[in-house]
Design brief:
The protein has a domain of 43 residues. The radius of gyration is 45 Å and the shape is elongated. The model has no long low-confidence stretch (mean pLDDT 76). The protein is 81% helix and 0% strand. It is mainly α.
């Protein structure tokens, strides 16, 4: 029974903390401060977890990491060789597309010219038919 009382007394007494010199430095490290700040800032004004803010910060961190990697440059030779090959392929495709575009534009202008000539020929053909009909009427009147 005395052991039961002693454990009960131990529970009733407040726990003591280690002194700051025994466990850790007086000031928290910058990393622990930023983690604590991040944990606190995940909560909105009502104290609920703010998922949107957390996702936005996460995307910002990922974008910053990606930007840093791009600025550092591609250190892998194979990746660099692949990107160079892709770029040259893109350039050749672009040049090919430009040539094809020029050829198609030339064909379009040629076809437009042909359409104009055909229209003129149709108009002239109609004029000649009308004139021919008028001449036939004149000849038929003279022959009577």
């Amino acid at each position: 029974m005395s052991s039961h009382l002693s454990s009960r007394n131990a529970k009733d007494q407040p726990r003591t903390r280690k002194s700051s010199t025994d466990s850790s430095p007086a000031k928290p490290s910058p990393t622990s401060r930023s983690l604590k700040h991040e944990r606190v800032s995940r909560l909105d004004s009502s104290g609920a977890y703010d998922r949107e803010a957390y996702d936005a910060r996460r995307e910002n961190r990922m974008a910053a990491r990606k930007k840093a990697e791009e600025e550092a440059g591609c250190t892998d030779y194979k990746k660099r060789k692949i990107t160079m090959t892709e770029r040259s392929n893109e350039r050749s495709m672009l040049e090919t597309e430009k040539r094809e575009t020029r050829v198609l534009q030339k064909k379009i202008s040629d076809m437009e010219d042909e359409v104009k000539v055909q229209t003129e020929l149709k108009n002239e053909n109609q004029r000649l038919k009308d004139e021919n009909g008028a001449l036939i009427r004149v000849i038929s009147k003279l022959s009577k």
